[in-house]
Design brief:
The protein is 30% helix and 26% strand. The strands form 2 sheets. A 4-stranded mixed sheet has the order 1-2-5-6, covered by helices on one side. Strands 3-4 form a two-stranded antiparallel ribbon. Helix 2 packs parallel to helix 3. The protein is globular, with a radius of gyration of 20 Å.
Amino acid sequence: MPSRLVFASAGAMLLVALPLHAGVTVSYGDPDRFADAGDRNSDPRQVMLTLERYLQELGDRYLPKQSDLKIEVLDLDRAGRPYMNLPTEIRIVTGKADMPCIELSYTLEAGNKVLQSRRERVCDPDYLRPLETQYNEHDPLVYEKRMLAQWFRERFAAGGQPLQRSR
């Protein structure tokens, strides 16, 4: 019986020591201080939680196994501008002057080795182009998500395509 316990403990320690999948960790400080993270209809913290989950989904789809990506969002300026002359606030999108931008720094590591580390300002000046079918046009963060997906593919995906993972 004691040998089974030792064997089980050793196996558990091995699983802890060797990460089995890629991981994305997102931090973002105080979103209330960002240029344009929230408005009367959306709390900046909720916006950042939504984008954090989306970045983690992108990591699941595009990052190689056993790699870790740490992203720190330094600022967010959402597409459009709040317009408050109505009983509810809406966002008006007009063109390049109000394109979505996100300032971030990131570090990609694999096997305790830093593969990439940068600070970038990511913007999509062509955000008003037609939406691809995978995007929900009623999602209040649709332009930001599309911008982040394009950035993620360009930086981290092999050939810009999702990795083929065995299930």
